[in-house]
Design brief:
The structure holds 2 protein chains of 2 kinds.
Chain A: E1 5-7, E2 10-13, E3 19-24, E4 31-37, E5 44-50, E6 53-57, E7 64-68, E8 74-78, E9 87-94, E10 106-107, E11 111-115
Parallel strand pairs in A: 2-11
Antiparallel strand pairs in A: 1-3, 3-8, 4-5, 4-9, 5-6, 7-8, 9-10, 9-11
Chain B: E1 4-7, E2 10-14, E3 19-25, E4 32-38, E5 45-51, E6 56-59, E7 62-67, E8 72-77, E9 86-92, E10 101-102, E11 106-111
Parallel strand pairs in B: 2-11
Antiparallel strand pairs in B: 1-3, 3-8, 4-5, 4-9, 6-7, 7-8, 9-10, 9-11
The chains are: A mainly beta, B mainly beta.
């Protein structure tokens, strides 16, 4: 049973470029959340995808966009990269409960993005 | 939106002592409070969680308490060991992982 996987592991980009990060959820999970973790900080919620739609969004600009595919995998896209976008990007998967009860969230290993 | 504050930012204890980390939250609708342990260069790992209908939960050396009225919750680690050294994060959400907010983290160092 594979856990949450992310690719690539590391990425170096320059300002103004665009980047796409990928996440495959844990087997049986249908929901993917994305987080940005700056060095020495806690993860900051970017957005969450369920049934191929964005369900909730944190305080991030429109340069951050995402997608969820029918197989529940997800992509995070960041346009017009800024130096401040350098961070560890984590995705987490979970299974939505029909009764809105909370289900454990599993994190992937993250993608470390460096913007020069 | 939810705002989670965590204290202290760093904590150093002697092996065998107890460690306590405290968090406060602002959104009274929050009903789920997980704690994560993150070792250097690794992903956050869930160590314990508590729901708003419970006041305390214990798992071996780890316990969490929740005070809904005061909107604060705490992590207690007893008989600390060097392998407990890591960064610990508290978080709060309103269910289904929507809009989960994390504290800034506590770097715990357990000295042998």
């Amino acid at each position: 049973d594979a856990g949450v996987t992310q690719s690539p592991t590391h990425l170096i980009k320059t300002r103004g470029q665009q980047v796409t990060l990928r996440c495959s959820p844990k087997s049986g999970h249908d929901t993917v959340s994305w987080y940005q973790q700056a060095l020495g900080q806690g993860p900051q919620f970017i957005f969450q995808y369920y049934e191929e739609e964005e369900r909730q969004r944190g305080n991030f600009p429109d340069r951050f966009s995402g997608h969820q595919f029918p197989n529940y995998s997800s992509e995070l896209n960041v346009n017009a990269l800024l130096l401040g976008d350098s961070a560890l990007y984590l995705c987490a998967s979970s299974l939505v409960s029909r009764r809105n009860a909370y289900n454990e969230q599993f994190f992937g290993p993250g993608t470390r993005l460096t913007v020069l | 939106g939810e705002n989670v504050e965590q204290h202290p930012s760093t904590l150093s204890v002697q092996e065998g002592d107890s460690a306590v980390i405290k968090c406060t939250y602002s959104d009274s609708a929050s009903n789920y409070f997980p704690w994560y342990k993150q070792e250097l260069g690794k992903r956050p790992q869930l160590i314990i969680d508590i729901r708003s209908n419970v006041g305390e939960k214990k798992d071996q050396r780890i316990a969490v308490t929740l005070n809904k009225t005061a909107k604060h919750f705490s992590l207690h680690i007893t008989e600390t060991q060097p392998e407990d050294s890591a960064v610990y994060f508290c978080a709060a959400s309103t269910g289904n992982n929507n809009d989960m907010r994390f504290g800034a983290g506590t770097r715990l160092t357990v000295k042998p």
